[in-house]
Amino acid sequence: MLLKRIFAFFAAGLVAAAVNAAEPPQALIERISTEVLNAVKADKGIQAGDTNKVIALVDAKVMPHVDFRRMTASAVGRYWRQASPEQQQRLQDEFKILLVRTYSGALSQVKDQTVELKPMRSKAGDTEVTVRTEVIGSGDPIQLDYRLEKTADGWKIYDVNILGVWLVQNYRNSFAQEIGSNGVDGLIGKLAERNKAAAKS
Predict the structure, then answer these.
(1) SS3 191
(2) CATH classification for the domain delimited by 2-200, as one of 3.40.50.720, 3.10.450.710, 3.40.1160.10, 3.30.365.10
(3) Chain segment 69-95, per-residue pLDDT in tens
């Protein structure tokens, strides 16, 4: 289960380097996914579960090239517009830490996996696409789909689907419940509490 969870997060890492905006999304994913997987396989510290190394890898390879504002706004849903700019920033910060902490422990599970890209259904000129892949390893193939948008800075990922579950939608349900009960500050506090507990474990 850990392996499946890490690949949901690893999807963001597949667009984790400075890229040319004209590079096709599939070529981008194929190139960067190999770099990310190789970095994990070559680092014994990451394989041993060194959280600091994991965070450094994610920060360097993943977050600068994810439309994290859009991802967080989508996860928060209709309540995003009710949040102040300061609350929106706090939500982004805590959501980022949540994702990094949630999946960092599973990076040590990466062994001999490779990524196989599936045919993409898109047209020339599309600014949003879905790239479908499978992660091939010793177990059953893991289905991964990525939603990317073309920006002035290149293609950026804003949602990930693993085995039929979209990451943003998965969090949206729980976030909505928390905000409905305790407001935006309640969600921020809940995320912060969860992140502090994870940091101590």
Answers:
(1) helix
(2) 3.10.450.710
(3) 999 999 999 999 999 999 999 999 999
